[in-house]
Design brief:
7 helices; 230 residues; 29% helix; alpha/beta; Rossmann fold
């Protein structure tokens, strides 16, 4: 399987997703449009993963390469590719489908629980998960919803945490892929994001969390995702 992973900052990597793909023997390619990388053609990959980053679809003029990413997502959806988006990636999926990104009611930075909706509990990707479980958050915005999309999960600070846009297209506003080392890198790179708020943990709280269990959940979800039928 050919996997294309689009990243948006040096300090925000695919984390455990990359090791999962390499362990499976997949061809894993990282594209960095923010560094001037040209995006591959849509027929060059089977599985598209769009990661988070500090950019926002609410300010496309500041990051015009995001428009190319949105167009690639549109083409990928048309060709029934498998697509996962995390944080900014989820927002770009919603933009590609015509649902506008919005500001989250609360900034969330840290490990906080999300809760699955009734539809989420029955979703083929999520149905074996508990109704409430901890995930990683690092965001100000959230993806939009369409009439025919399914809201699968929410948190106390953000109503749009997991969305199924199509049978093979999911957006996660939350993160499950960031490792402890990745968290330490983000703390160093963007310390301003830790400005206190209702749902912002301190540096000490962040590094004390159990990322291994969250990362293991990510790998199990990836295993299930590649078995989903469109």
């Amino acid at each position: 399987m050919n996997v294309l992973c689009i990243t948006h900052a040096d300090f925000e990597t695919p984390g455990v997703i990359e090791s999962w793909a390499l362990d499976k023997g997949y061809n894993f390619q990282i594209s960095k449009p923010y560094k001037g990388n040209n995006l591959p053609k849509v027929d060059a990959f089977d599985f598209l993963i769009v990661m988070g980053g500090p950019q926002s679809p609410l300010n496309l003029k500041e990051a015009p390469y995001l428009i190319d990413e949105i167009n690639l997502i549109k083409k990928s959806i048309q060709q029934n590719k498998r697509i996962l988006g995390f944080c900014l990636g989820a927002q770009l999926i919603s933009e590609a489908l015509g649902a506008k990104t919005a500001c989250s009611p609360e900034k969330e930075v840290g490990v906080y629980p999300i809760t699955l909706t009734e539809e989420g509990l029955q979703d083929p990707l999520l149905q074996e998960l508990p109704q409430t479980f901890p995930v990683i958050h690092w965001h100000n915005d959230m993806p939009g919803l369409l009439e025919n999309s399914a809201l699968l999960g929410y948190s106390q600070g953000c109503p749009h945490q997991i969305i199924r846009y199509k049978p093979l297209v999911y957006g996660f506003q939350c993160h499950l892929e960031i490792t402890l080392d990745g968290i330490k890198t983000m703390i160093e790179a963007v310390p301003q994001d830790l400005k206190p708020s209702t749902f912002t943990q301190t540096q000490e709280e962040l590094v004390a969390q159990d990322y291994t269990s969250i990362n293991n959940m990510m790998c199990k979800l990836l295993d299930k995702f590649i078995r989903l039928e469109g």
